[in-house]
Amino acid sequence: MPLPGNETFARLLAAEGGWSMVESETRRFPDGETYFRILSEVKGHAVDLVCTLAAPDDQFLRLVFAADTAHRLGAAEVTLVAPYLAYMRQDKVFNPGEAVTSQTFARLLSATFDRIVTVDPHLHRYPLLSALYQIPADSLHAAPVLADWIAANVAAPLLIGPDEESVQWVSGIASRIGAPFEVLRKTRHGDRSVEIAMPDLSAHRLRQPVLVDDIASSGGTLIEAARQFSAMGLPRPICAVVHALFAGDAFALLSEVAARVVSTDTVAHASNAVSVAPLIARHLNTLPLRKES
Ligand code: R5P
């Protein structure tokens, strides 16, 4: 069952897995409250609610209404399929008095769903989603699909991680395609202000740099890293990201300094070049109750 804006991805998933789509109806009342209705029979079925969480504040209440309605109508299990899982980065108190939003969001989703399936959540200080979520929470990895895209489309790539948190993605991709990788040093000064220190890349001059990150949000990280390549007279990097959030004019600004920007379809975006739908469908098919009877 897709929530608004997730119909294309849900159809891809349903086609991959051989499942039916649950029909629903939703709209806003004149005062801004949400109306939600499930139109299909869900009793006894596993319902996979498909909603990427790139705009979580706008989507959250509708998600809860949809899950509660499916449970009330007798769904055997209600799973949130969120290819992008939000609120993973504020995972500790950085300044006194701050909300630890990753914990609060996890508690609310855990109270609403029976299971969560997502792709590359931003795990940094928490090693596993199970440290945050009180329900089964499955993290799938997009590195293989991005790696296969790079292997098929880039000759002699040099994989670059823009900061130490990206090592997990960049090293995985590099080893899958047998390419070297380097990691830059990032200092963040604010939401949109980062400083990037480049290592000596002269040994890789003949290679095509490919910057790999899990999330492009303000785009500040990738834009600043890509600018550094130009400043050092290196080829413009190709940028490959899992989650293409690209707030405001981030994509336009990055496109000015990158050779190309590609992403997976965890968030629908003009840069989408590879789909994670087969990956998610394969995983869902390992769970109980998914096969059509
Ligand atoms: C941070 O550690 C992440 O891996 C990304 O580098 C970061 O979230 C990107 O954010 P932005 O696009 O706002 O620089």
User: Care to count the β-strands?
Assistant: 14
Broad shape: globular
Major sheet size, sense and barrel closure: 6 strands, parallel
In which order are the strands of the major sheet placed?
8-7-11-12-13-14
What does this entry look like structurally?
- Helix 1 (7-17) crosses helix 8 (277-284), helix 4 (143-153) packs across helix 5 (167-177) and helix 6 runs parallel beside helix 7 (250-257).
- The model has no long low-confidence stretch (mean pLDDT 95).
- The two termini are 18 Å apart.
- 30% of the residues lie in helices and 25% in strands.
- The longest helix is centred in the N-terminal third of the chain and has 17 residues, at 56-72.
- A six-stranded parallel β-sheet has the order 8-7-11-12-13-14, with helices on both faces.
- The chain has 293 residues and is an alpha/beta fold.
- It has helices at 7-17, 56-72, 101-110, 143-153, 167-177, 220-231, 250-257, 277-284, and strands at 24-28, 34-38, 46-50, 77-82, 115-119, 137-140, 157-161, 181-183, 185-190, 193-197, 208-216, 238-244, 260-264, 272-274.
- The chain binds ribose-5-phosphate.
- Residues 162-163, 165-166, 194, 213-221 line the site of ribose-5-phosphate (R5P).
